[in-house]
Amino acid sequence: RVLVVDDHDVVHWGFRLLLERQSWVESCAASTSGDDALREAARTRPHVALVDLFLAGESGAEVAEELRRADPKMKVLLISGAGRISPSVARAAGASGFVSKDWGAADVVRAVRMVALGQEVFAPAPDGASEVALSPREREVVTHISHGSTNAEIARTLYLSPHTVKEHTSAIYRKLGVRNRAEAVKAAQRLGLIT
Question: Average pLDDT of 57-67?
Answer without folding.
Answer: 85
